[in-house]
Design brief:
Largest sheet of chain A: none
Number of strands of chain B: 1
Radius of gyration of chain A: 23 Å
Order of helices and strands of chain A: HHHHHHHHHHHHHHHEH
Number of helices of chain A: 16
Number of strands of chain A: 1
Oligomer: heterodimer
Largest interface: A-B, 126 and 112 residues
Helix content of chain B: 40-55%
Number of helices of chain B: 10
Strand content of chain A: under 5%
Distance between the termini of chain A: 47 Å
Helix content of chain A: over 70%
Structural class of chain B: mainly alpha
Strand content of chain B: under 5%
Chain lengths: 484, 267
């Protein structure tokens, strides 16, 4: 009887938090894909609200003000963070030659992460908001977020100590640093009771940091693994990799205040934000050049490898995003685009564009190796890429356009004296923008269709993907090294 | 392959064995000498034939083989596989149909790329730069922007309650409460000064204007009219057909009254 109970207990433990190799990567990937569906749905709903403000009205939790933090949370803390953790758990053993330290802890961490995400969505829907952008969840849930991020950090750091590869590959730089950076960001963001301009600086520091150092940072780490691995080419240039990494590390935390140029914060901070945005353009150039160089002689592989296709298209968007973010930070540009939808356009290009494409690239590469099944449908992969590009590209372009129209009509109204963008005058400017918002809803629909194709394809891969080689990592343990 | 010589060379160079071995193998292949000769030279023994470098022990702790490897990245090694055949860590063979992945260097040959690198050093640099950014781009400017004696908010108890609704319902996602000193913000009212912001967390400065700025909503029409605000917030499109404002008819009456009071007091 006692043995039976023990056996039951251990089988439950193995179900909740298995110890087997790569189980953490596999489970995080599945969770991330589920959250992509949630994130895509809420983002679609949010953009629909701009086109049809009365749509689904009359409920507190369906107002724009409640949906927006839910959509962001499901995208950044749900989909992208979980996918990044899957990438970390998949790549670190392969890059260090060591078994993941404590796979069970990593799997337990997933439950915490899912719990935090579900709690965040429910609390935000119920109207619990701290009122700071991207930090809306109550402060005690911020502590749970730090705990959820400490799990992979501890696991990875301990794994690093067991490594048998002496080289520290470029991917690892980003994965390691990203985990420490994101914890630092949540600690900085968690400092309570800042008010006025200080509170705005805190939130802009946090948002920009999460974007550059976590969402983009870990994505670069993934891209730096996928391209050399798939093409079987050595990394093009190590010096470029060094320049790219340290430019990001140096500048990533500085660029937040570029969103609030001419705002109440210190002027010098806006200037440094602009200068450091240029350093991020350098970082993007270094990374993208390096990836392109690594592709040499292997461009034809773009046809056969979906992962390669998604990585390189994502890299292209990375370049676009950093250039646009630099332009946005310039005073002359910000005088028009500041406080308009322009910034949201860039944001959607980051979350569903470059980061989403890199996350998909990782999935298309890792999922078949993790479960021993080929992706279910190549056609759905093509649909995913095209719909994402068309959807996210036109959504970003329309929001940029809406931003420019807003900015110019505010200025025009004031300069001509025809109206001022206040009170009834604001309606004059809004009428110019509404068509762009209407089309944006259509773009969001296409984007969502692409994400749905991805999620469905992943689901069908589990149920009916054709078998392929299941990759198992046999680490070079210390025991094998000693005898020759 | 002599493991004692390998150990000696490793100790002399201060470089882990695996790297010494790979580098020695590459050197041996390139120079047409035997592996033992290279190892013996590196461990401080008999110097190599003229093609070989001077005894590397002179240059320790800088790892001579690694330096050489990095200096010639364009020359492909004779054996492009990540590990030479004599690599001690031979991966176990797993049963088919499982593909075995030995812990690899996906970014090319370790002979070219691999150097013993400390991840602690990397992390120290990365975290250090982050802390510098946190200090200079967050902590110091936040202190700089916090007035020594912040003004009172000037809000009534009901207004404060309304401010909480304004924050929790997310009005600030679409309405700013900040006026900038530029032409787009002309006639929006006095420019927002950090010293004049109320000492209540969080700020309501906002992030973008899908709707109009509300910094001074209470001091201009139509938002200085409680009746208009009540009608507009309850059913926005009956007041203004093209409005994007969500309806807040679902708010409790007391909450709506508080929210209106907050807007009226935002002057």
């Amino acid at each position: 009887m006692a043995t039976a109970t023990t056996a039951t207990r251990s089988s439950i433990a193995n179900f909740l938090a298995p110890r087997d190799t790569d189980s953490a990567a596999r489970r995080h990937l599945i969770a991330a894909v589920v959250f992509l569906l949630v994130a895509g749905f809420f983002t679609l709903l949010l953009v629909m609200k701009l086109a049809y403000p009365g749509f689904l009205g009359g409920q507190a939790f369906t107002t724009y003000g409640r949906l927006r933090p839910i959509a962001v949370s499901a995208t950044v803390l749900g989909f992208l963070t979980l996918m990044h953790l899957a990438a970390v758990y998949y790549l670190v053993p392969r890059l260090t030659g060591a078994r993941l330290w404590n796979e069970r802890l990593a799997n337990l961490g997933l439950w915490l992460a899912v719990g935090v995400n579900v709690a965040a969505i429910l609390l935000l829907a119920a109207g619990y908001s701290d009122g700071r952008e991207w930090l809306e969840i109550p402060w005690w849930l911020d502590i749970a977020v730090v705990a959820m991020l400490l799990v992979p950090t501890v696991v990875v750091t301990r794994t690093m100590r067991d490594r048998t590869e002496e080289g520290l590959f470029v991917s690892l730089w980003y994965l390691l640093a990203g985990l420490y950076w994101v914890i630092g960001l949540f600690v900085a963001g968690g400092i309570p009771n800042l008010y006025g301009a200080a509170s705005q600086i805190q939130s802009s520091f946090f948002v920009a940091g999460i974007i550059e150092l976590w969402v983009i940072g870990i994505g670069i780490g993934t891209a730096y693994y996928l391209v050399p691995k798939i093409t079987d080419n050595p990394l093009f240039n190590r010096q470029l990799a060094i320049i790219g990494f340290w430019s990001l590390a140096f500048a990533g935390g500085w660029v937040g205040q570029s969103r609030f140029v001419y705002g109440p914060g210190p002027e010098w901070l806006e200037t440094t934000a602009s200068v450091f945005s240029l350093a991020l353009v350098v970082a993007a150039m270094a990374v993208v050049t390096n990836l392109i160089g690594t592709m040499r002689g292997k461009w034809s592989m773009m046809h056969e490898s979906a992962a390669l296709r998604f990585t390189m298209v994502g890299a292209g968007l990375f370049m676009v995003v950093e250039v646009i973010r630099f332009l946005q930070s310039l005073r002359s540009v910000a005088a028009i685009t500041g406080l308009t939808s322009f910034g949201d356009g860039t944001m959607v290009l980051i979350t569903f564009g470059l980061a989403g494409l890199w996350a998909a690239a990782f999935t298309y590469h890792a999922l078949p190796r993790l479960i021993g099944r080929r992706m279910y449908s190549e056609r759905l992969i093509t649909v995913h890429l095209r719909a994402t590009l068309i959807g996210v590209g036109s959504l970003a372009a329309l929001l940029w356009l809406a931003g420019l129209i807003s900015g110019y009509s505010w200025a025009a109204g004031a300069l001509t004296g025809a109206y001022v963008a206040v009170g009834d005058g604001f309606a004059n400017t809004l009428d110019q923008v509404r068509p762009a918002y209407g089309l944006a809803a259509l773009a969001a629909l296409v984007l969502f269709a692409g994400q749905f194709a991805f999620v469905y394809n992943t689901y069908r891969t589990f149920t009916s993907g054709r078998p392929t080689e299941h990759e198992t990592l046999i680490p070079k343990g210390p025991a094998e090294v000693t005898h020759e | 392959m002599n493991s004692e010589m390998l150990a000696a060379a490793s100790q002399a160079l201060g470089v882990p064995k695996a790297i010494v071995q790979r580098s020695a193998q590459a050197r041996a292949n390139a120079g047409g000498v035997s592996l033992d000769e290279v190892l013996s030279a590196w461990s401080g023994g008999a110097p190599l034939t003229p093609a070989a470098p001077p005894p590397a022990s002179e240059r320790a702790p800088e790892p001579a083989p690694a330096v050489e490897a990095v200096d010639q990245p364009a020359v492909p090694p004779p054996d492009p596989a990540p590990a030479p055949p004599s690599e001690p860590a031979v991966p176990a063979v797993a049963p088919s149909p499982v593909a075995v992945l030995e812990a690899p260097a996906p970014e090319g040959s370790p002979v070219l790329e691999g150097r013993p690198e400390s991840f602690i050093t990397l992390l120290a640099g990365a975290v250090g730069l982050f802390l510098v950014a946190a200090l200079f781009a967050f902590v110091l400017p936040a202190l700089d922007a916090t007035p020594a004696s912040p003004p009172l908010s000037g809000l009534s108890a009901l207004g404060l309650q309304g401010r909480e609704i304004y924050v929790s319902e997310g009005c600030w996602y679409c309405h700013t409460q900040q006026v900038r000193p530029i032409v787009t913000d002309a006639k929006l009212g006095p420019v927002t000064q950090p010293d004049l912001l109320a000492s209540i967390a969080p700020d309501t400065l906002g992030i973008q204007r899908i709707g109009p700025d509300l910094a001074h909503a209470g001091s201009r029409p139509p938002t200085n009219d409680a009746g208009w605000l009540a009608r507009f917030l309850t059913d926005p499109r009956s007041v203004r057909e093209s409005s994007l404002q969500p309806g807040y008819g679902h708010l409790a009456e007391a909450d709506l009254a508080a929210l209106i009071q907050y807007l009226l007091e935002s002057r």
